[in-house]
Amino acid sequence: MPELKVSIDQNEQCIPYEGGDISRSLKDILDAEGITLPSDCGGVGKCGLCLVHIEAGECTPLSASEKTTLSGDELNRGCRLACQAKPLGDMSLSILKADNPAAWSELEADGVTGNASASNKLGLAIDLGTTQIRATLWNLDSKVRIDGITSLNPQAKFGADVLTRLAAAKASKLDADQLSLLASSAVGEAARILVSRHGLVTTAIRSISVVANTAMLALLAGKHYENLLEIEQWQKPVDCVPESIYAWQQAWGVATDAQINLVQPLAGFVGSDLLAGVLSTNLTGSEDAALLVDFGTNSEVALWDGQSLWVTSVPGGPAFEGSGLSCGVPMMEGAIYKISGHGADDSLELYVIGGAQAKGVCGSGLVDAIACLLSIKALNPIGRLAEPYAKAGFPLDETSSIRIRNHDIDLFQRAKGATGAAIVYLLEQAGLKQAALKRVCVTGAFGSGLDCRNASQIGLIPDVDSEIIELYSDSALAGCEVLLVSAGGQQRLSSLREKARLINMSLAPEFDMLFVDNLFLKPLPKSGSSTTSMLE
Ligand code: FES
């Protein structure tokens, strides 16, 4: 099979392609590998954006549109339009301007960072979230983190939540392949960006660890995703081991002997991201009762009672991630991440990531907004805005362009209701009361920006002493990093798997009642619960 040797930002990838089919342009072949070139003309040779430089090999003669679109200089330098040129055998080419469909932004480091030289072995840790992907590059020799970036999960074009994506994959093999490709391309892109920022190359990457919820792992591996739509399968183990890692090694341009470890989930509804979080927070490190809540589109909860690790997850929707809201944005530059009330005049002070013009509210900002609106009685605990805000929403910013509406609060309540139900149910199963908790670890969508007092007041987290609440920006990624660089990580993970007790909330008879109880914007019930008591 002939190969395209493709250089992007000093990194090289080999792409085998079906020879003898000259209907496929270079762009078609690159697209199929998830390497997208910019295009404004739909691939008819008019925009000139898909420019590539042919280093070696032959392709079809210049098309009429190339002769008019390319400049004399570009023609002399051996440039071609990838949408027009079709390869006629082995070729080497360099991409002059790769498209950047996912905007990657800086991921702040929690600890020490370092660098690496060309002779060092590199590792990549990936937290493949439903909404966001986070990636960090490590020097495996010194076990030091070099850099980290984050971006939105490009699979979102198939739907914001896992169920929509699973349904799309089940309905069409083509869509399933595309979902897998979108995720794997994002990993490859993250690898290329991270190494090139430090003058390194992807071939130095020797190990990659990926943690994710089960749906993300199954979609990436391209197997068993259809099972996840059947409730009775959720409690069973799901094999998400890829059939072959060769294609990824090639597409990502990593070392040919690079290890790619998709950290396997515990079951259909408990992914390796939760296990990684338990690992990095050392939740089971003592006999003290400890709770971990990983808020997200799919929120996951783990409760350690000193002997057993009770685990579950609930699909609450993307409101915690700022998605699906009329005023919502992800936790990125321009997001209102914190809001404080100003007492007597009812005005609010907004804090915006990057200090720039506010674009919308992310999850932690929404928690503060709801708590503030409750305190000034612009919102009631049932979740309805008072007049005059009921119809047009409550304006947050000076220009009144960012408004909290009933619909936004409703979505937040549904996510909170599901997560609260999971917390209360696990406590009941373990025979514990909130007061028994010695640690409450919070991670996920809110990062470390959550105001714990506000979160407790509206019942998002247990109503406990703020001293025992620990905020983690991304415990799943931190756990993934432990698995990447620590020799004992895998053993600790195996031990956690043995202690786990799976609770399938969709089969819990009390779930509906607990869900309704926890919709209300009040502190979580100390023990037991009933709708009546919440309405009092
Ligand atoms: S995509 Fe426009 S010229 Fe190739």
Question: What can you tell me about this protein's structure?
Answer:
With 536 residues, the protein is an alpha/beta fold. It folds into three domains: 93 residues, Roll (Ubiquitin-like (UB roll)); 158 residues, Domain of unknown function (DUF4445) (Nucleotidyltransferase, domain 5), CATH 3.30.420.480; 267 residues. It is built from 15 helices and 22 strands. Strands 6-9-8-7-10-11 form a six-stranded mixed sheet, sandwiched between helices. It has a six-stranded mixed sheet with strand order 21-20-12-13-14-22, sandwiched between helices. The chain has a five-stranded mixed sheet with strand order 2-1-5-3-4. Helix 4 crosses helix 5 and helix 5 packs across helix 6. The longest helix has 25 residues. The C terminus is likely disordered. The structure holds FE2/S2 (inorganic) cluster. FE2/S2 (inorganic) cluster (FES) binds next to loops.
What are the key terms here?
536 residues, Ubiquitin-like (UB roll), 3 domains, six-stranded mixed β-sheet, 22 strands, binds FE2/S2 (inorganic) cluster, iron-sulfur cluster binding, ATPase_NBD, Corrinoid_activation_enz
Short description:
The chain is α/β, with parallel strands linked by helices and 536 residues long. The protein is built from 15 helices and 22 strands.
Outline the secondary-structure elements:
Layout (H helix, E strand, L loop, with lengths): L2 E6 L2 E6 L9 H7 L18 E6 L7 H6 L2 H5 L2 E3 L9 E5 L9 E2 L15 E7 L3 E8 L4 E9 L9 H10 L1 H24 L8 E8 L1 H8 L24 H7 L6 E4 L9 H10 L8 E6 L2 E7 L4 E7 L19 E7 L6 E5 L7 E2 L1 H13 L18 E2 L7 E2 L1 H25 L8 E6 L7 H6 L11 E3 L3 H11 L3 H11 E3 L8 H7 L13 H5 L1
Parallel strand pairs: 1-5, 7-10, 10-11, 12-20, 14-22, 15-17, 20-21
Antiparallel strand pairs: 1-2, 3-4, 3-5, 6-9, 7-8, 8-9, 12-13, 13-14, 15-16, 18-19
Helix pairs in contact: 4-5, 5-6, 8-12, 8-13, 10-14
Bound molecules: FE2/S2 (inorganic) cluster.
The site of FE2/S2 (inorganic) cluster has 11 residues, from loops.
Pfam family, one: RACo_C_ter
InterPro entries: 2Fe-2S_ferredoxin-like_sf (IPR036010), 2Fe-2S_ferredoxin-type (IPR001041), ATPase_NBD (IPR043129), Beta-grasp_dom_sf (IPR012675), Corrinoid_activation_enz (IPR052911), Raco-like_middle (IPR041414), Raco-like_middle_sf (IPR042259), RACo_C (IPR027980)
GO molecular function: iron-sulfur cluster binding
